[in-house]
Amino acid sequence: MKVDWKGVMPALMTEMKQDGSLDLPATARHIESCLDAGCEGVIVLGTLGENASLTADEKVEVVRCAVEAAKGRVPVLAGIAEYTTPFAIEAAQRAKQAGADGLMALPCMVYQQDEREAVTHFRTLARAVDLPIMIYNNPVAYKVDLSPEGFAALAEEANIVAVKESSHDSRRITDMINRLGDRFTLFCGVDDLVLENLLFGAVGWVSGMANCFPRESVQLYRLARAGKTEEALALYRWFMPLLHLDVAVKLVQYIKLANQMTGEGAEWVRAPRLPLAGEERERIAAIIQAGIDERPSV
């Protein structure tokens, strides 16, 4: 199964009102802003999309909203993050019915699988739905790490086409290419490793901070892919304090606050998450404001 997934794909926030209800018009406006900046796809219902905080019906609403906003201009991927493999299959089928162009599949939530179990989960999901799939490999957050050998076991599944590599190990891109060549399209999934990953062979970036700084994210990607390393490095050094926010425990609240401060969205989240307060809010807001004040012209 061939896809042309590349470039910057924001791991999109799910915009909410202060009472925690969905704000679909704001989500659609945010998608338009990202596409205007040059993003080449959007991924809804990931970690930043607060997948686990939404009902099954709300997830369908978000996918439909994104598909309608994108108007076929870029692929829309739906995050699949469920407790069991059957639940994941059901969510994937509903995402397809809602118009998703592909899936970003996570391991099953809560239960910490080993590699054999994770491979079986992804294989079973792939065989149950005829959409292209990006596997989200994030052992830091989800406690299961698919090695290059694990991905080799999935290579026969034609609709597993891409990997969001979030192991926090920049050597992994090279190991994947050495073991599997171009079998999988490789995306960086860790914001503060993006330049390294792009220089080592990733062709895309599933980005958190692209929500708030989409033009700068696209420019960094383009410079890196064009081999303009010195220019990319200068932009990367400005960006780095902001990119670090993507790997914090409260990345959802941090990036939603950045969205609010840059005019891209609102800070509202769904419980048990709460908006930032006190010293923590002041500290994170200062980092964001410094980035805004020193924002380069791109």
Describe the structure.
The protein has 298 residues and is of the alpha/beta class. It has one domain: Aldolase class I (TIM Barrel). It is globular, with a radius of gyration of 18 Å. The chain has an 8-stranded parallel sheet. It has helices at residues 24-36, 56-70, 85-97, 115-128, 139-142, 148-154, 171-180, 194-200, 214-225, 229-243, 251-261, 278-293; strands at residues 7-10, 42-44, 76-80, 102-105, 133-137, 160-165, 185-188, 204-207. It starts with 6 loop residues before the first strand and ends in a 5-residue tail after the last helix.
Which key features would you list for this structure?
298 residues, single chain, alpha/beta, eight-stranded parallel β-sheet, TIM Barrel
Text of the CATH class: Alpha Beta
Summed up, the domain count is 1
- What would the CATH topology be? TIM Barrel
**Major sheet summary line:** 8 strands, parallel
